[in-house]
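Backbone shape codes:
***
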Amino acid sequence: MAVKNTTQVLIGGKIMTLSGYESEEYLQKVAYYINNKMTELGQLPGYSRQSLETKHTLLDLNVADDYFKAKRQAELFEEELETKDRESYELKHDLITSQVRLENAEKEIALKMEQMEKLQKKIEELEKELGGRLKK
């Protein structure tokens, strides 16, 4: 069973205690992300004049936007990986097919070479026989 971790983090200038089954490093990373988002939003004109509820909603919307963009990017990467896996499989299949064809062609060449050698010997024998007959 996983161990629950607890750590103190600084979010928006306030110390908070976070706990979860993730590592303390991960919890700190999440807090760092939220702080960066808050800083990013704080730099927008008119943000500081918004109510706390509106600020929280804007933070939620920005986090959700980042999440959906990252999720879509992950989906695109998965699709690309599947395509590359499929292409790799097809290339491996083509390679194996080509290797089989090459082996068959090499066997055919060897067989033809053997037949050619036999025919060459037969030609030599016939030439000797013909040469012997012409001398007589």
